[in-house]
């Protein structure tokens, strides 16, 4: 045989490979063709038929694997990976995926105003458009990388803003459930899109429920008496779910009535509010808390089984590693704690949303063609500017004598723009990255020639042993005690955020000093950020004039960190952390006074605009509540100094929570409030300041006055504590619904007439001023008589209307009689009482312009009947007790300590009762006194309660009572630690 040439050999090899590859390629093509012909891929078939087909093709192992947040691909069926959870609170923010540096992957797109700012627009139509834009951008990112950018969006947050100290106040909408429901429904509908069968994205409401504190957030118990739960907490979630504007909920970290929210029964609550199938998830790490910090279950299989049975479909835990979840669920199956039917039910819930997202449609469904070209589009920029403008709230705008109001400004005047937030924009933990920035100074400079600006912060140098703390230029690097003179590398701008916390920005490169690599200090950060926010410091003055530099990052609160938080410079200048005793004693030199520079700028201008506020990573955020609501002392001093130098001072307050600014409100002529509102903040601010836009934002929560005593942040009973505008009788600094305009509005002809199953309320609103503007017309009611404590007033409707000068519009609301119901604890249902109601219409809860009354024909709640078994949790009043779990699966009980009590009002004891039986559980012997009229009233009997063997080991305890008849308030007073499930009085 002749030898082959190289070319001939290559040709022969290619032919051989081709012959070998042909069957494999044909097999792959045949498999792909078969996959394409599966019934579950046919969009013409009914949804349930498609779900049934796919479910039947999955193995048990594949189904179990889908209970983790990273649902792995099933290659044999041509199904790719599906991940839950892209954050999209006010724009696409970040994914749960981790990059190669260990950080979450963050989007760079349209960052709309923070959620509380969106609600401040009181404009659901606008919020829906914003939601739609966010949904488009989520689709755009998904089209580029579906592994990182999932289409199940963890937004919006609907937790009620009952306490302004909550670190996550910026994430919620309002202290009012009706307003929260309207805004969340609008945002959710925008995220979902308008297709009746398909979803643009799948919004998930956070965090179910009563999750409004960060202190002990995974172990604290939100004790919700039935009225608070049913009248206040639940409506915030139910509104969007019942309107099919959300596809599920995320369970919260906290306990609700003693039971972790992670295993609170969603099947008996949330899933009953809609006919749509919901896909629910746990909060991150929640499954492990059940056996960890909460110690609620002894083993992970028990915890996993409880979650599945409670209706949680997806375990958000262990990042991308689904193995622990799979092991726990498989063990639960092996132990008989779960069945395959339980798994099938859960996977059906998951598939219902995956199908609606178009994942299994050949063309990806109606939203499958959206590309990343939509991200940061001109249309989204314009929408963002409008949102930031409509969200701004004019808190004050006074005039002096015959002078016009302080705002709007005249573009011919010279303006000094000063303050620590004058020339920067901050993002928050749930923000994406800003693709560009228009700062307040930028926006005003575009309008007013000759505008001057300064941040008004001190520039300092720190010196010890003849050497200065020195930073590196460029990208930055480790700080050292080095130079003997104070040049730019030795200078730092000091930003005051209150409570002694400051940040230090290096003049050398404009970056912030951070505790880099968990050891030394370096000037490397663009802004304070990250989970631990390691850019926080304190400059602690000592009695001898020295200054200690203290690191104050959030992890210093952890007990494992220890006392080593003070900066020490070694002989070679290297920095480390040590105790106060061993810290380096610096001399602080002020290179430039921020107040002096701001005062000089203010004196040189016709008007001063001072931009102050918060840093979202420092002044409270996830895992950290605020300790007070004060503006930083240094910022307050800056405003007062500027105002003294130029009485025409406008304060722009940029933060995301009510702030006690009483002293400033008394002094300065104008105050404008905005949240951290994204890249268009400066344009929006200028639009308002110069009157291009007329302010019409309204506050969505009460701003308390300085000195107002707020209840314990862990006390969720707004009725008992008199909290929020609903129950508070304190005079606020600014009331719920407050906001001013550059024009005036008149209200006329309020009418309230019966209309079917309710009343139709109408009022004529007229723009009586010289400028076009928006008015937010607000409808409130107040019930005159009731069996129980009623709200001072309660929002029943609102509408934002736009009116030209002299124009009028009749605004009509419909109030259903059922909307006026209260939760009747005597019968465990809603009831409408027969009563007269005030109907109040105005521009704020404390600015009522028209009022009338209506008579509502309802029912009279009958007297308590304690001769039938009554749940202890259905008390009318109490002192000190806490609502807890009757069992780990269901039911509420009352946990009482010595001296604590519950009361049942107006009990009709008929011709007389002579005995009492209590359902009780306790580790140790206790007793319960039965008293009449008050907790110290007539003692009619004492129930001895022996130890039952544990808090979930229920028994009954009985006692004789002194014969008592007629109507009484009956009190159960604990003498010892115990739980009470129910009671009955016997003849």
Structure in words:
22% of the residues lie in helices and 27% in strands. Strand 6, helix 6 (177-192) and strand 7 form a beta-alpha-beta unit. The strands form 15 sheets. It has a 6-stranded mixed beta sheet with strand order 13-30-29-28-14-15, sandwiched between helices. Strands 16, 17, 18, 19, 20 and 27 form a 6-stranded antiparallel beta sheet that branches. Strands 40, 42, 43, 45, 48 and 50 form a 6-stranded antiparallel beta sheet that branches. The protein folds into 5 domains: 6-37; 41-374, Alpha-Beta Barrel (TIM Barrel), CATH 3.20.20.300; 392-548 and 589-701, Rossmann fold; 743-856, Sandwich (Immunoglobulin-like), CATH 2.60.40.10; 870-986, Galactose-binding domain-like (Jelly Rolls, Sandwich), CATH 2.60.120. The protein is an alpha+beta fold and 987 residues long. GO terms for molecular function: alpha-L-arabinofuranosidase activity; beta-glucosidase activity; carbohydrate binding; xylan 1,4-beta-xylosidase activity. Residues 1-26 form the signal peptide. This is Exo-alpha-(1->6)-L-arabinopyranosidase. Belongs to the glycosyl hydrolase 3 family.
Low-confidence stretches: 1-20
Query: In one word, what is the shape?
Result: globular
CATH class of the largest domain: Alpha Beta
DSSP strand count = 50
Helix/strand class: alpha+beta
Rg over CA atoms, rounded to whole Å, is: 32 Å
β-sheet strand percentage: 25-35%
Which topology of the largest domain does CATH recognise? TIM Barrel
Mean pLDDT: 94
Q: How helical, in percent, are the residues?
A: 10-25%
> CATH superfamily of the largest domain, please?
Glycoside hydrolase, family 3, N-terminal domain
**Individual helix count:** 19
Largest sheet: 6 strands, mixed
Which CATH architecture of the largest domain? Alpha-Beta Barrel
Strand line-up in the sheet with most strands: 13-30-29-28-14-15
CA distance, first residue to last residue? 116 Å
Query: How many independent structural domains?
Result: 5
Protein name: Exo-alpha-(1->6)-L-arabinopyranosidase
Signal peptide: 1-26
Domain CBM6: 868-986
InterPro entries: Actin-crosslinking, BXL, CBM6, Cellulose-bd_IV, Fn3-like, Galactose-bd-like_sf, GH, Glyco_hydro_3_C
